[in-house]
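Continuing the series of single-chain predictions for the mutant panel. This is the parent chain; the variants come on the following pages.
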Amino acid sequence: MQTCLHCSIVACLSVLTLVPAQHSRASDIVLPPDTKFLFQLDLKEFGKTSIGTKLIELTAREAAREMETEGEQLLEKVNESLGFDPLQEIRTITLATSVLGNPERAFESGALVVQLGKTTGNLEGLMLALPGYDSKEHDDHTLHYVGEGSQTAVCSLFEEASGNHTLVLAREESQVLRMLESLGSVGTADSVALDDGVFARVQLFEIPLEEIREEPAANVLKLVKQASLTIRETDAKLMRVDLNIEAVKEKKAEQIRQLLTGATAAIGLFLDNVDELKDPELRKTAEDVLESLKVEREDSNVHLQFSFPTKVMKEVLREQADLEL
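Parent structure:
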């Protein structure tokens, strides 16, 4: 009985990170000043994409199969258990960390931030049934501890001035406290928000030069102060990627622009010699991507933009994640 209850609660809480949001656009997230890496996923925008729709359907179907129930019945049960409809309440998921280079250390030294709507439903009550649960008060916040042994986590709910809520989750208490402090200090720390249409964003606030020593990559990265990459779906068949590079100074930005422009032209010259592109369809895809590519510079910022077929991302997910999209 305890195992079934535990599994049911975990399933309900897991849905928070698997469904698209229908709520309003997410507000800015205020970050700790030493944040070095950021990943953001806007579930509302992702749910609108052709890939997002299929992934969500697949996830719901697999979850329903595991729990031996119908998909619609599962969502109804999840809504009842959580005390709110995650399709309406969840907005964005953000991972922020101060560690670069080591994915495992990055997660352990970072925090997961889930932006919700104006209700948290039964979330805090459900935590009581999780293994190893404990809690304590810290200033105006309640810290919740779950898990046992090395598999532990700390979380807390933060209420924004707008009445919306933010769930902060981390492996270490210190990371939750730092994020709560930043969320409460609007205007005194860096804040980030996704542009309309963007469903995913990766940002490096610091370049890990010590991790990349091979030339020519190391030579280029020495010129870069920070970089960000965003992805959006422009229609059901195309994804658009925007890469923004901030150089250490304007002169270096021009050097980077020249490199990217020259490299683009060079790649076009060598398409005929790439064995993998002998297939007409693959070659057409490569040519279309190159044709869409644009490189521009404004002051110390270099902007690169290109589009690629949505089917390419689907193929990658099929091969790397064994997903039937």
